[in-house]
Amino acid sequence: MDSVKETLVFDEKEALVAYTIEIWKRVCATSIAERGRMTVALSGGRTPVDLYSSLAQEGEGFSWEKTHIFLVDERFVPHDDEDSNFRMIKETLLTAVTAPKENIHPVDTSLPGPDEAAEAYEKEIIRHFRLGPGQFPRFDLVLLGLGEDGHTASLFPGSAVLQEKSHPVRVVRLDNKLHDRITLTLPAINNAHHIVFHVEGAHKAEMLRKVAEVKDPDLPASLINPAEGDLLFLADRPAAGLLLKQ
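-> structure tokens emitted (246 positions)
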């Protein structure tokens, strides 16, 4: 079956969230039927809060006992820090669902430094996916956000990590005003079965146009291009405003 690569626009945030939940449900059913489990990588930030909260309220059809949850990226902060992606995901989603503790795979930020945390996270991914040398994980679903500078995950414009070809996880070092981060690399993300960008707000309109339509190669989000997977941009009408004017 040919891969799907398209942008869908929703008049209301609630419809966008509901559609994303339906994608999750369909991917879950297919993944468990074909592989016996579903493995998803989640993004942090403010945009997916409503999605995770709504997902937590859903009833049947999600097989949480067979769902494994990883993070797309994480700041090197304690898990109870207000900047922790894991803290947000735990509070909005994980405390409300029945996924076993062993199915939750956070970045261990209690380790001495970000290098150790990245190495441990990579080892956990290798163990879970049973990877050999040079292989990359095949997540069933990766949920991504889009930064106003064109970054996604913790892949920022101009970062040396964008050139990574051998490792699924890398450290991203930022200036002394920002936390160092641990992120999935481009090959790890692009190997997924399904990748979904969730984009909201008029302040993202120009960047969404550059990424989804122009495909500006200087923007990391434009480099998300799975060879054998689906790529969907799900946007509310303000975020898609410049696309709709074409």
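The first helix runs from residue 13 to 35.
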